[in-house]
User: What shape does this take?
Amino acid sequence: MKIKFTVFTPAYNRKELLRKLYMSLQNQTYKNFEWLIVDDGSTDGTDEIVKKFMQENKLDIKYYYEKNGGKQRAYNFALDKAIGELFICLDSDDKYINNGLEIILEYWKEYEKNDEIAGMGYLSIYPDGKIIGTEFPYNKMIETQFDIYNKYSVKGDKGLMFRTEIIKKYKFPVFEGEKFITEASVYNRIAEKYKMIYINEKIEIKQYHEDGLTAKYNNLLLGNPKGQALYHNERNKHKMSLKDRILNNAVYYKFAKIASYPFEKIYRECYSKLSLLLGLPIGIYMWRKVRNRK
Assistant: This one.
């Protein structure tokens, strides 16, 4: 029988959280999935605990160890290995409600033959059940991932599922010396061609940890400026108000300067040159503020 879901978990020194996720996945009412763990160079004995999971033979677990290269490289590696029809990234500090996969599949049956839809988005909640951010404007909404946030002003993290055959075509950009780029960089590229179906179902439970990416996000962005410059430049391919476009290009300029790109390169590669010029004074101010802080 063909595997329906690949549940991918990038892991880096999170063995105790992996144990909780392991228990959670065992409780899923829908069982036809593989759990693909890519260990991003852990040194806390993650490999030993995963071996114990595998010996118990309760889940279909695929485990790979890679040298530390950041989540985007682990994600790309997982895309190469995934054999499920549908692809989900579930971080080590996240989990799904017990019938989460079952709910996703029930909705998906209505849209799986629609080639214009790349996947599905659903609500994320805190452990106390409160929705993270806002709901979607209405249930079973068909839109792009870019517009759901930028046109309809949906807020907060959301759970996502993609057709594996589609997301395999959209690898994360990687830059020498950088280990992070926002996942939105991939989702926005997908949004240039595909839409998603969004459902107001509470499926993903997220736990934010002090040592997680979210906790040190601003420093993370500043430490990976090439990826951030690319992300903001590619946002220019989508519809935005003039105000948002000018501000976006000011931020693009800031990160490009932090990456030590010459202005000729910044201007030549920009997808919205007029907005860049209009946003230049703000961008220069932002860049100098970061530089002076150093």
